Each structure stands twice: as C-alpha cells, then as structure tokens.
C-alpha cells in the first residue's frame, strides 16, 4: 500500500486548473451581463410600411395607421390563430384572430368578459354595430381602468373571431382613435393561411 501525499490530493487529473476556472468565470460573467444588455439594446418596435396591408395571420389583413410600429413582443403570426400588436405612441392597438364556433353576440360577450376579468377594468356604455370596408360586420364598445381608457371591436367570419382592442391614456386615445378607427375599417378576411 502506498501513502497519499499532499501533491496527490491537489494534482488530480479531473480537477480543472486555476486558469481553466478563471476562463469559465469570465465566460459566465460575459453571458450574465452581456446578453441582458444586448436584449435591452435591440428594440422590440419594428417599422411597418405605410399604407400597405399587414398580414396578421389566419387569412386576416389590416392596414396599420400611419406612424404605427409593430411590437414584436406581442405579435404572433400563425395559420389558424394570430396576434398583431401595434403601437401608436403610447397607445396599444392589438388584433387577435382565433378559431371560434359561436356567433357575433357570443364573441362580444366573451371579449367583454375577458376585459372585465382584468382587475380594475370595466366596460362602459353600450355596444354599437360596426363594419369594415370589406363588409365584415361586428360590434364595438368601450372600457376604462382608472386614467386609462380603451375600445374594443369583435368580428366573426368563417369560424374565426377577430378581436380588436385599443388602450392608452385618455389624452393619447383622443389623438389616435380616428387613425385607429380608419385602420380597423381596413380589416379583411382573405381566407386561407
């Protein structure tokens, strides 16, 4: 039997050397601080071409308002369900498309329920009929949450519901709603994915 010396305990082949450990710490530090900094440096906002239809998904298109940007953090294209999130200054303009087997009043009740399920949000006023330039018939209404306001519209076409929600501070909404209303009127269902 041999004796184990101090050298044997500290010089094991599977133990990384000091230099390897320092390199590993440096790589981990670069990843820990570098990736979040890179993420913050890359904007989530993308310019959209003015006056051209944007393909939301599931066969639905819309012409975004002039000056709107696409927020990629809330945009999910898809063949049977999709979401597009536009920003017009501080105002949020969202269009969501998903499969739906009910009729227009049921779709409106479902959307209103989702709005009021959010803490502090309440639907205001009455629902009104609305239609797009392409002939989609829908219902629209308003909601509020403290100093923020919002509008919604819902359409049902070929087994899909198209939900439009707009929210922002009251003053910002006053300035942007005409452009957003004009954009909503450009909603079209072109069929197919």
Strand content: 35-45%
Computed CA radius of gyration, to the nearest angstrom: 26 Å
Q: In which order are the strands of the major sheet placed?
A: 1-4-5-6-10-9-8-7
Number of helices: 4
- Give the SSE order as H and E letters: HHEEEEEEHEEEEHE
Number of strands: 11
Residue windows where pLDDT falls under 50 for at least 5 positions: none
* Biggest sheet layout: 8 strands, antiparallel
**Helix proportion of residues, in percent?**
25-40%
List the helices and strands and how they pair.
Elements lengths: L5 H5 L7 H24 L3 E3 L6 E4 L2 E3 L6 E3 L10 E7 L2 E9 L4 H14 L4 E10 L5 E9 L2 E10 L2 E10 H15 L3 E2 L4
Short description:
With 193 residues, the protein is α+β, with helices and mostly antiparallel strands. The chain contains four helices and eleven strands, in the order ααββββββαββββαβ. An eight-stranded antiparallel sheet has the order 1-4-5-6-10-9-8-7.
């Amino acid at each position: 039997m041999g004796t184990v010396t101090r050298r044997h305990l500290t010089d094991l082949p599977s133990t990384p050397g000091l230099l390897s450990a320092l390199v590993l710490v440096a790589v981990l530090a670069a990843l820990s601080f570098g990736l979040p900094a890179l993420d913050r440096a890359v904007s989530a906002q993308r310019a959209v071409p003015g006056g051209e239809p944007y393909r939301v998904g599931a066969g639905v298109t819309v012409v975004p308002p002039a000056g709107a940007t696409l927020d990629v953090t809330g945009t999910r294209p898809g063949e049977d369900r999709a979401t597009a999130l536009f920003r017009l200054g501080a105002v949020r303009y969202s269009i969501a498309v998903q499969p739906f087997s009910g009729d227009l009043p049921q779709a409106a009740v479902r959307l209103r329920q989702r709005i009021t399920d959010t803490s502090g949000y309440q639907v205001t006023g009455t629902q009104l009929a609305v239609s797009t330039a392409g002939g989609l018939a829908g219902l629209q209404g308003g909601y509020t949450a403290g100093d923020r306001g919002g509008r919604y519209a819902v359409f049902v076409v070929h087994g899909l519901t198209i939900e439009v929600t707009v929210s922002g501070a009251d003053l910002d909404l006053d300035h942007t709603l005409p452009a957003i209303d004009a954009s909503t009127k450009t909603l079209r269902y072109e069929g197919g994915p």
